[in-house]
Design a protein that fits this description.
Elements lengths: L10 H8 L18 H4 L1 H8 L3 E6 L1 H9 L5 H8 L4 E5 L3 H5 L1 H12 L3 E2 L3 E4 L5 E5 L3 H12 L9 E6 L4 E2 L5 E2 L6 H12 L3 E6 L11 E4 L3 H10 L6 E4 L6 E3 L17 E3 L3 H8 L5 E8 L3 H12 L3 E6 L11 E7 L4 E8 H14 L13 H9 L2
Helix pairs in contact: 3-5, 4-7, 9-13, 10-11
Length: 386
């Protein structure tokens, strides 16, 4: 317990309820032998013996200290010393939660793979109503269990993932591109690696740090991505095409920087269809999953792409929605196969990556499900396609 925590509940209460010692001091406890090495380095021993470090509630102060490596008490020192998974459940005043400093600290922690159980909105102790209320116990417990019950269900698989947005040069300084940040593809790569897969990540330019223990193949253009993917296709058992590939490129590229002289007309030509090439060249037993970013008639366009390309599934993104998709850390998608349309709710992209992988694994042994009656057009179309 931190000094602040002890202002609310006495350590004796926790000791009585749990039957375990409650540590409150980084230094040698009062009354113990100053020469007892086990007492002096207790934070190191606890850090090395724990399965998970859970901080609930986590104040704005502790989030800031974790984010910036400040180690001035037992808890913060233990955080730096442990290699176990870390889960924090923030709770604070709504204005403190929404403050740019707190949000920046949360982003730092998320990038270091600290699991954050987001607070709920409601009546707060300070009298305000808003975000900052500690998540319900069940949500915290479920998160901890999901972290501890590590799955190894992709062991033996080689997952080839594409990510980012390809760029097609206009001249030496300009290119045609798109708004893809690569976050979804990188989240898929990290999730697959943590579940035991060997992961090959073919990445167009992004500002992201590559996930640990993942083979990264950097590319820029669609042609380079196609060559990289097809050149490694014989190694893959699952292919996930999460990249935003440019559909067109300039028919010709200027050797020198083009000068502004008024209206400009560009002649474009289609780029290579990587997904279709993968489906055409895939080996028996290989699963192929594409992504589709749509702004209208999302399900219809996704269904059309699925049937035209011949993939096993398409992950549909409605990029017209606020707060998800491009440039966001959150997303909500539809996992579409020939006989199913599974709505996956809005989550962080890392959490969503695991749900997408769960659905992909069901394709190994497909389960029969009845399509929702709310979409009779989908049932009819898929039925007509046989």
């Amino acid at each position: 317990m931190t000094a602040a925590a002890q202002q609310f509940i006495a350590p004796l209460t926790f000791a009585a309820l749990t039957g375990h010692k409650v540590i409150t001091d980084l230094w040698t406890p009062e009354g113990s032998d100053p020469g007892d090495a086990s007492s002096a380095i207790e934070h190191i021993d606890a850090a090395q013996s724990t399965d998970a470090l859970v901080v609930a509630p986590a104040t704005a102060d502790i989030l800031a200290k974790f984010a910036h490596g400040i180690a001035d008490d037992f808890l913060t020192t233990m955080y730096l010393a442990t290699t176990a998974p870390v889960i924090v459940a923030p709770a604070m005043n709504a204005n403190m939660w929404n403050h740019a400093a707190t949000q920046a600290n949360l982003e730092i922690l998320a990038n270091r793979h600290v699991r954050i159980v987001a607070p709920e909105s409601g009546y707060l102790a300070c009298g305000m109503v808003g975000a900052g209320r500690l998540a319900e116990n069940r949500g915290i417990v479920d998160t901890v269990l999901s972290v501890l019950l590590h799955r190894n269900d992709l062991a033996g698989e080689t997952v080839l993932i594409t990510a980012g947005g390809t760029r097609e040069a206009l001249d030496p300084v300009r290119f045609l591109g798109n708004r893809s940040s690569g976050k979804m593809g990188y989240a898929m790569a990290e999730a697959a690696q943590r579940r035991g897969a060997r992961v090959i990540l073919v990445s167009a330019p992004t500002a992201l740090r590559a996930p640990a223990n993942v083979e990264v193949v950097p590319v820029v253009t669609t042609q380079q991505m196609r060559d990289a993917v097809l050149g490694r296709l014989d190694q893959a058992s699952i292919v996930i095409k999460a990249a935003a590939v440019a559909d067109y490129r300039p028919r010709s590229q200027a050797d020198q920087k083009m000068r502004r002289k008024g209206p400009l007309t560009l002649e474009l030509e289609p780029t290579e269809d990587i997904l279709a090439a993968v489906v055409e060249q895939r080996r028996p037993g290989m699963l192929v999953v594409g992504f589709a970013a749509e702004t209208e008639d999302v399900l219809a366009h996704g269904r059309d792409k699925l049937l035209r390309k011949g993939a096993d599934a398409i992950v549909l993104n409605d990029v017209s929605r606020e707060g998800v998709g491009f440039d966001s850390d959150r997303n909500a998608v539809t996992f579409l196969t020939r006989d199913r349309a599974i709505e996956l709710p809005e989550l962080t992209k890392r959490e969503l990556a695991d749900q997408i992988l769960d659905e992909i694994l069901t394709l190994r042994s497909p389960r029969k499900e009845v399509l929702s009656e709310s979409d009779p057009d989908l049932s009819m179309s898929l039925g007509e396609q046989g």
